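Run folding on both entries below.
>entry_1
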Amino acid sequence: MRRRVLAGCLAALGLLTACTTHEDGISGVSTPGVPAPAEPGTVRVLASSELGDMAPVLAQVEKDTGIKVRPTYIGTLDAVDLLAEGRADGAYDALWLSSNDYLRLRPDAARKVLSETPVMSSPVAIGVKSAKARALGWKPDDVTWSQVEQAVQDGRLTYGMTDPARSNSGFATLVAVASALSGAQSALTDANVTEATPRLKEFFKGQKLTSGSSGWLAAAYERRGDVDALLNYESVLQGVPGLTVIRPRDGVITADYPVTSLRSTNARTREDVRRLTQDLRTERIQRLITERTHRRPVVASVPPASGLDTTRRRELPFPGTRSVADDLLDSYENELRRPSRTVYVLDTSGSMEGDRLDRLKTALVDLTADFREREEVTLMPFGSKVKSVRTHVVDPKDPRKGLASIREDTSALSAAGDTAIYTSLEQAYAHLGADRDTFRSIVLMTDGENTAGVGAGDFDDFYRDSLTPAGQRIPVFPILFGDSDRSELAHIADLTGGRLFDARQGSLDGAFEEIRGYQ
């Protein structure tokens, strides 16, 4: 199946929303929300999700300039889609992405940019448990991507990374690995990717953890304890205890976090963006940035924070065309990465009758366009009990057949009964059973509180006492919808190491789509 590369949450959200992450980590709530209206002295910024850690810096900038930054956090590649399709026009005053490299491959997005100014930088790096680095005999200054691949091939290294189709840290990691393993001396080509594919397949056998955001990835890594390393920005890795941070000797790709002015804005807004950028590049703010976030300053007179290696590394080439970038992503999604197994535990109780059920059906039908080859999808509708368990595999030989079956089962959903949340979750865990070298997860969508079957305490006991350690590593991603109870669903996310998503203020389609980065 040739997936819709980079459709992201934007296609699902239609003309209404962007993905705004209010918190990150295990139980952070992602809320698709409508952009705020323009206000004098406020700059509405479409920002990469990891920039949530810049809040203290932006508070100081507001004191300096009187300019308030109102960020909407979103995956970098999704933001480029929004810009290219004109949905940022009039809704945002500036971009602040980890990198504009992919944006430059999109003429429909690049022509909407007026100027860009780098503010800080952070290279993609490898954070390895210090004990593991010693066991591998690695010296941080000398490690190469080829050595990492060999350690994976030998079964001595596992790692987590973000989803390249949604997160720039994942995309930059994918490009860096492909460039290094192919020996590319200039911008990646299709021939480079083809040459590197056998080694890339070996490399991605070591990926045990995936995520739609860097913050959740780090939190999940610390919770699990069975993953040896993280591939992410150096700045993220510096904040994770017990890691030896390595910038591979054969090259890195560096995010430069440019504040980007948009052509759709007026002269007054552009001046506010200029003043904002100017203050961010003052020595005082640059010192604050590197001390608070472990990103590197772009002002030469300001030294990097303590602990940041200052030895030079080669900057690996970025793809020269969008087609190469998209083909690399398609290869990752459908061939290179381990496949996914997901159970969709779907509330079809009586309260879902009418518009709510229609919205659920529409969201699931739309989602089928994003399912990957080799993916196993189980629909588990429930009311007073689980009504049916229907599993479908997107077979690379005939992907349309599996997708058509999912749509057929979705259309047949009907509303009746009470709401047995916890009993249904227990059955979902039983269905996933033993690990088959896949990414396993459960998505729970409910519009109400638990009213049937076992209770919350019984489910807690089941999770802690009945599941194996491998079973306990299967996260539940609950979706707030209708009249569902935030505290009840947040507890499920906290207990299982999942993440809570909010579809009450925005789009159910968007919530399902955003979860894709975690599957």
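>entry_2
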Amino acid sequence: MRLISRLALLSAASLTPLQAYAQQTPTGSPQPTESAGEESGDEIIVQATRSGRRVQDEPVRVEVIDREEIEEKLMMRPGNVAMILSETGGLRVQVTSPALGAANIRVQGMDGRYTLLLADGLPLYGGQASSLGLLQIPPTDLGQIEVIKGAASALYGPSALGGMINLVSRRPGDVPEAEVLLNASTRGGQDATAYTAAPIAQGLGASLTGGYHRQTSQDIDGDGWIDMPSYERWSVRPRLFWEGASGASAFLTAGAMTEQRLGGTLPGRTTPDGSAFPQAQDTDRLDGGLVAQLPMGESVSLHIRGSAMTQQHRHVFGDVEENDRHTTLFAEASLSGKSGGTSWVGGAAYQRDSFGSQTFPAFNYAFEVPGVFGQVEQEITGRLTLAGSARLDFHDTYGTRFSPRLSLLYRPAPWTIRVSGGRGFYAPTPFVEEIEAAGLSRLEPLGKLKAETATTGSLDIGYASGPIEANVTLFASDMNDTTRLEPIGPAALANRVRLINIPGQTRIRGSELLLRYRRDAYTVTGSYVYVDASESDPDGFGRRAVPLTPRHTAGLVAMWEEHDKGRLGLEIYYTGRQPLEDNPYRTSGRPYFEIGLLGEIVVGKLRVFLNAENLLGIRQTRYESLLRPLRAPDGRWTVDAWAPLEGFTLNGGIRVKLGGEH
């Protein structure tokens, strides 16, 4: 079940958590600050800003999913953050590999590879997080999730061309606390997660999170192809938080994860050409990071961030085995300050993203990108604020790139108006969605590709008065030199593909609408998203709609919730028709509704929950097989996923909370 998240507004720079640690007490309990939604009575505390401004005074709109919302999603899908992110308007979690269940996050119609995924402001999942990476992050220890849409390269480099998502960790409180969750589903899934945190000494606290997740393979339509892959995953993440009396602070994190995932044909079954085709991926990841702050006087602070990540994969695509390693190294130092109505930040960064394949070394790369960046926010009047940011990256392969962003905030109460626009770039890699699903064996070595670029803009108008909230966003993106695969030779006979820059421009226009009414323990929320995305037709016949981009999506959610009693929620989601590409069964997906119910009962420290997903049993394989009659030129045996693959699912379990402050 998906519930629409509460929205908060904070600065574009807020996705680095340096000030988050400085603004909290030595024991880690947040000091009272003004909430993002104080006009509506919805108290969401901002945990991270570089400028130090109140959240409602910042020029760039960022949507925040707070801890309360995260706890709701824990009961729906405890194993990963995909469902949490799918609640935010303008985000779409798209399945990229039905064989392995991989998915990525599309922001306002842009491909998932353009979305930067950070953890506490660090690229702990890589400069370009893999499609399975999203499904390997449990939400157990998250304090909030922050989303910024549109080109964010001005402060965060080429990986943030389409937007950025920052996962902010929970902090230890004044007293020890622990939480355990056990969950099981009717589709053969089980989850067990645990979180514990405690103060260690004055100014020093620690937390530890661990999880075990498994899923048995499911061939729901009985055709011999696994519709839900099996997996088994272990993860652990310790963290240390320190803050000195002078305002200095430091945060250390480390993580380890191992997963084995299996899909494709069932043992003894074959694809239409009569051959067995197992698909598998084994993943081992290690990461570590540091965030630190040191005051350099009354109004200036030094900030340091750094991280390292290594991820090793063993892929199986039929009779082909691919072994590779991804690594990311990141370092940044910056100074920030404030004087009167002016806030500023400036610094330098370095990032190295590399890929090494033992099987296909022709695709190896190592991108090194030093850069400098800066941001200035100026409060012109009490109601008008202007912010400008820019970054200069010196990419060793794609040259020097300039990425600016300009934002404006005007607040004639009870209205909030924001205008923002920016430019950015993306360094192409072999890992477009089809290659992540099919492997490198049929891809030609990359030729001379151009960097992908985008110009994005948005107009956001919000209203809040009493129990009513409303928000309308208009957005647009113009993209140049985007990449896609094309078959070599006639498509019906081709068994090789190459990656090219698309001629012409990819244009995206759209809008988001959110309406919410609150009364006591009841909340009703409605949302609607419109996306019109078009690109050059690969056959040379003008333009076409971008595949897998529904023009209309909508949702209606009703929730009753009392903290010490429980909650009950109903959701109805609609997904409209979406154009499909290279699908032998249809040219567009069918529109469909998804209905879900969630219930939770609180009994002392025990919480019992039950969640019903997709009550109508909508499933793509009710209409046609996932399997193609012939293997695609890029090597895939499945068509694209345009509807749910699991059908109706029921899950339930318990949560136990010990200690802490309630």
